[in-house]
Amino acid sequence: MQNIISIIQIILAILLMVAVLLQSRGSGLGAAFGGEGAVYRTKRGAEKILFVATIVLSVLFLGITLAEVFIRS
Question: Residue 52: which pLDDT band, with cuts at 50, 70 and 90?
Fold first, then answer.
């Protein structure tokens, strides 16, 4: 059972890394120091799907990690 949870945890970690890296297109070093304009806009289309998928993957990763901790103890 621990092996299955570990494999799921690794897969979720890889998917979460990919989702985060795909989102960070406009958040370079220049944006950190005010290089990007402060324009507020809503997420649409694929950007919104990727945003929601990142949240879902992070919650699943947290849940699997907590499950693994409780199983080991």
Answer: very high
By residue range, what is the domain housing residue 6? 2-72
Of 23, 10, 9, 12, residue with least CA distance to 56: 12
Percent of the chain scoring above 90 in pLDDT: 51
CA 12 to chain CA centroid, nearest Å = 9
CB-based contact 60:12 (threshold 8 Å): yes
Structure tokens at 52: 């929601």
* Residue 4 · residue 66 · CB < 8 Å: no
With tokens 């901790």, the residue in question is 69
Regarding pTM above 0.70, the answer is yes
Q: Are 16 and 54 in contact (CB under 8 A)?
A: yes
Q: Count up the domains in the chain and report the number.
A: 1
